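Loading example: each entry is read as two labelled lines plus one structure line.
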Amino acid sequence: MDTQKISDLFKTVDSNAALQVVTIILIAWLIVFLSQRLLPRLANLLHSKQRLYTLALIPLIRLVVVIVALVMLVPIFIEPTLKNMVAALGALGLAIGFAIKDYVSSLIAGVVAIHEMPYRPGDWVTIDGVYGEVTHIGLRTVELVTPDDTVVAMPHEKIWQHAVLNANNGGPSLMCVAEFFLTPESDGLVVKEALEQIALTSPYLQIHKPVVVTVNDEPWGTRYRLKAYPVDPRQQFKFITDLSLRGKQRLLDLKIEFAKVETAKVN
Amino acid sequence: MDKNLWRWIELNEYETPSVPTTMLAKRWWQKMLQTLRPSRVEVSTANSAEEEPKGVEFKFDEQPLLDSLNTLLDQQNQDDPRVTWLVLAPASPAWSVIRKWANQNGWQPVSMPQRDSLLTSSSVDELNIPSEPWVVDDLSHGFVRHPLGIRWLQNFLRKTLQTPQSPGLVICGSWLYYYLEKTHGGLNRQALTLRPFDTESMVTSRIAVSRAHAKRLVAVSEGHPGIAAAYRNAFAVAAEQTEIVLEMPQVPTAHGETSTFVIYALLLHGGLSTFLLGEVLNSIAPNLIEHSLNLLRSHGIVRYQDDQWSVTELGYPAAKQFLAQRDFNWTSC
């Protein structure tokens, strides 16, 4: 394809067309900017499902705005005939293949993420070993805030190779686990009842969900896992702390011994 | 007076009376305004709960309620050792009437431990179910949401699950019943509650002075006669009045999480002392609880009376909405 043929693809852009382009881009940018600023603020004033649904609107609005803007912009530059579109897409494919492959891979993964929803704003996810709350889904990256308040920008393309572990999957139910390591001689039924009482009396408990205690025998003793759900996923760390502290205190009051594991010394 | 005014229904038949769309829209708009202005702390209706009632105070006629209990419980003869649960909303006039009825009919009260003593680490008090008809006149007195405070109640549930020798009556707050139902695998017991009041019942019972007044009372109280009566006593309305404003206190959204825990704990226990509230919410800093209580009191949502914190009758609808908005273990009854 020679230079003449490529230049024939494009229309002549006069001042009127340039004004249209600027207007479309400005309006699209304004809508995206406002949705990204206002909706998270509104969402943080809401609770439970309302919060999650409001947050989920943000990437959806941006995707719709970008598609509409592109549909309006392309005919300004290119006469949308079959021949022109094939030629333009071919040139675009070549550029993507050589120069901006990874970037475009993330963009496409971003679109797939909005459609398949492996994560939504407000979800608690683990991607590539990083656990945190999804606070923003951008065009190229998803922003996670870890429990230590560190913001991690994770490229969407991670979803091609890595499993996404989603703890609440768009809803307010997020299971929390508090672990207790006890000697094997402990009375299992007494421990189980005491731990259930601890969960049932926690102010953070979502009473619509079950409280479960599971027991595993290990070479060093017995592992008890107290599983329950908080009312709000954002309370998960406070909830686990509450279960752990009160659980330990109750077990100590019941004179139940905790397992002490001595690590082998390596000379 | 309509004999069907006080009718006991199965708990699962309970339906909140419908509220006119205009009133729902107004309530939604107020909620939106409050959501968008969370930091604003107003004391508009601050002490409305503690104001002197205006005009003649409305009091329920106890006799029809006593008659409804006779009809309900006379059907249970002594050979039928069923345990009947009567689930009551806060401020329901039935609380005191059932006690009176049980006393008049010689139903023996089950001895219950002192709430404070529930938290001692010694073993739980022996529970003796009388061999004659018996009554637990407020189950929440045997419960504190604390690992030690839940033992008596669990013991009671286990004992009454086995068929007792004589019929029993358990009076339980709606919030506690809902909590027990969800956390103890479905109580699967005969549980009854009072039918909610609709516009007609508000007029018949003379809580409302006119139909317009009755509609407002149904909307604000969601059909709870005790709450409606409190609103009637707090806001004087003339029979010919068409423009009726029943101003509900608003729960302040500042310290939302602590306020949620405090309100829920008070509703669940039907009121708590400062000490027990601290024990129930021992993972929350005491100064936060104190600050939240003072804030809620200044807005007329809670009161401190006889060494007990409790949710006010006027504040109850707002408190319930506040919990429902947060999807916080709330009950419609």
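The helical segments of chain A are 3-9, 15-45, 48-77, 82-98, 101-116, 158-161, 188-200, 236-253.
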